[in-house]
Amino acid sequence: MSTLQTFHDVPVLMYGAEGAAIGSEADALDLIGNAGYAGARWVAVPADRFDEAFFALRTKVAGDIIQKFANYRLGLAVLGDISRHTADSPALRDFVRECNRGRQTWFLADADELRKRLEPAPGRGPAAG
Q1: Other C-beta atoms lying within 10 Å of the C-beta of residue 129
Q2: What CA dihedral angle connects 110, 115, 121 and 127, to 10 degrees?
Q3: Residue 123 covered by a domain
Q4: Residue 41 belongs to what domain range?
Q5: How many domains, in total, are found in the chain?
Q6: Which of 90, 69, 87, 88 is nearest to 78 (CA)?
Q7: Among residues 11, 40, 81, 93, which is most buried (max CB within 10 A)?
């Protein structure tokens, strides 16, 4: 189930915790298609919806999914606590830190944090996706 919400004039397709696991490029394309249909510029998905392979960088699942979002110029926000994954993987911690420095993929605690990140900088329009 998903709902379209707007944070600071940025349409965000918000997914709930219920639903199939996301673990492939095909799954990413489903999310991207739904976002395009809804007119969203960002997609927010609970971390628990991602297959375990997403958090194991050696599988390349995260890279493949994130690349699909980048190709379609859509932002991806992974919402929720991923500390159990980052605790075991310095590489994943570094990956998350680098993503969070950018403007395309963010790993955030919740929708409130996403709302704050999408707030426009003073003197600028809404955050781009």
Answers
A1: 21
A2: 100
A3: no
A4: 2-115
A5: 1
A6: 69
A7: 40
